[in-house]
Amino acid sequence: MTAWMPSSLRRMWLVAALVSTLVPLVPAGPAYAQARGLPDFTDLVDQVGPSVVNIRTLEKVSTRAQAGAPSEEDMLEFFKRFGLPIPNLPKQAPKPNRPQPQAQEEEQPRGVGSGFILTSDGVIMTNAHVVDGADEVIVTLTDKREFKAKILGADKRSDVAVVKIDATGLPAVKVGDVNRLRVGEWVMAIGSPFGLDNTVTAGIVSAKQRDTGDFLPLIQTDVAINPGNSGGPLINMRGEVVGINSQIYSRSGGFMGISFSIPMDEAVRVSDQLRASGRVSRGRIGVQIDQVSKDVAESIGLGKPTGALVRGVEAGSPAEKAGVEAGDIITRFDGKVIEKSSDLPRIVGGTKPGTKSTMTVFRRGGSKELQVTIAEIEADKPVAKASAKEDKPSVSIATQVFGLTVSALTDAMKKEAGVRGGVRVEAANEAAARAGLREGDIILQVANVEVLTTKEFDAVLAKHDKTKPLNVLFRRGDWTQYAVIRAGR
């Protein structure tokens, strides 16, 4: 057919034929656009937004005149300690008969977080770390009404807290089914990052059942979460709350694309106990466990690496009384399969103390069923506060330049946090606050140098170039992460 065509026309004809065969491979315009369309969150914001609240916490502190300002003795001691030239400080005439300023108690802002209305009569859910240590909790609704809230209970292990305000007819959220939540599904968050009320962010579910704690398999998302978002709701496209925004993974103190939320089914179970008794009761059997490796599973005839390997049994514990031995592999508990070792403490922890349960162990090539009576985990103990005499917050150059005030750790604090040393953040302002540090954090390293005491902390700060960023490794709860403090910004 093309034999009579000139070569140039023949090439044009071939190109046209090739294009005509490729065109049908591209979907039609409207259908393709519809498949790639992004979700519209406007209706969800209108639906759920009024149920989200801002939470401010206040703390009563004892102050004197010029509280927090370093005295002349403090300044002289600082210059002597680090071998710095002593400036000519203005001399003050002695006033022996001058009365000392009396200590006064005043309320100071402690933090800002988020929450959401669980019931129309004023029950509000948030994070335990949002209200921890607060002497007063202020809840602000979207219509700008403010209420003083009463803390009904807070559970540090799950990071869930419940507070109550004196109001009725409030717009409560709808609780969603976490089991229906799918990886890749669109979700939305509403909260108060950096105090900016009713901020809406969105993303997708990145993973479920993420192992980041003993009792909670968290939901991982890429929704933008920042300080102040804590306690706010994670919402699916049906307008249902499926999680409580709780944590982020960060090396800078800000959002880096990985956020974690407490599954709502777990949070509701905790909140029910907090509302009923003000505390959460969890079960225990008294074993130390580890993951089962593939090599171990194959060598003992288990087949696949599943279950929880018992490395030790506490003397007098329910497990010892039930006949559990070191080396056993717990494969089932109350009929539930133990896929990995972290499943066991969650299942046992969710079992009511006093319950008689059946567990299956794999021992010396065969399975065996044992009966165990669940005991109760010891309740959380309050963190010991530093005494004014032993652990007076140190006023250092960090206060003036980086916005940090720190104090020494007591032996009780070190034991509870599982650290051998460090300093506790008493206040984080200015540059330190912008970097994400807050009161209660434990600083382990400064400028890549381990600091075990306030003296070591001050020594590192004295040598650091104040014009350069300062990296800080700190501990918050069970998480250790970096923050970068930039002075003068």
Give a brief outline of the structure:
The protein has helices at 7-22, 29-35, 42-48, 72-81, 128-131, 264-277, 294-300, 318-322, 343-349, 397-401, 411-417, 430-434, 454-463; strands at residues 52-63, 104-117, 123-126, 136-140, 146-155, 160-164, 174-175, 186-191, 199-211, 217-221, 233-236, 240-248, 259-263, 283-284, 287-291, 308-313, 329-333, 336-337, 356-363, 366-373, 375-376, 404-408, 423-428, 442-446, 449-450, 470-476, 479-485. With 489 residues, it is an alpha+beta fold. The longest helix has 16 residues, at 7-22.
Please characterize this protein's 3D structure.
- The chain has 489 residues and is of the alpha+beta class.
- Helix content is 21%, strand content 34%.
- It has helices spanning 7-22, 29-35, 42-48, 72-81, 128-131, 264-277, 294-300, 318-322, 343-349, 397-401, 411-417, 430-434, 454-463; strands at residues 52-63, 104-117, 123-126, 136-140, 146-155, 160-164, 174-175, 186-191, 199-211, 217-221, 233-236, 240-248, 259-263, 283-284, 287-291, 308-313, 329-333, 336-337, 356-363, 366-373, 375-376, 404-408, 423-428, 442-446, 449-450, 470-476, 479-485.
- The strands form 5 sheets. Strands 1-2-3-6-5-4 form a 6-stranded antiparallel beta barrel.
- The longest helix has 16 residues, at 7-22.
- The protein starts with 6 loop residues before the first helix and ends with a strand.
